[in-house]
Amino acid sequence: RRKLPYPPGPKGYPIIGNMGIMDQLTHRGLARLAKQYGGLFHLQMGRLHVLAVSTPDMAQEVLQVQDSVFSNRPANVAITYLTYNQADMAFANYGPFWRQMRKICVMKLFSRKRAESWASVREEVDSMVRAVMEKTASQVNIGEMLFALTRNITYRAAFGSLSHEGQDEFMKILQEFSKLFGAFNIADFFPWLDWIRGQGFNKRLMKARQSLDGFIDTIIDEHVRKKKSDKDNNKDESPVEIETETEKDMVDELLAFYSHEDAKNAFYDSQSTIKLTRDNIKAIIMDVMFGGTETVASAIEWSLAELMRSPEDLNKVQQELKEVVGLNRLVHESDLGKLTYLKCVLKETLRLHPPIPLFLHETAEDSVIAGYRIPAKSRIMINAWAIGRDPNAWHDPDRFNPSRFLKDGAPDFKGSNFEFIPFGSGRRSCPGMQLGLYAMEMSVAHLLHCFKWELPNGMEASELDMNDVFGLTAPRADRLVVVPTYRLNCPV
Ligand code: HEM
Question: What domains are there in the chain, each with its CATH number?
Answer without folding.
Answer: 98-290 (no CATH), 292-353+398-486 (1.10.630.10)
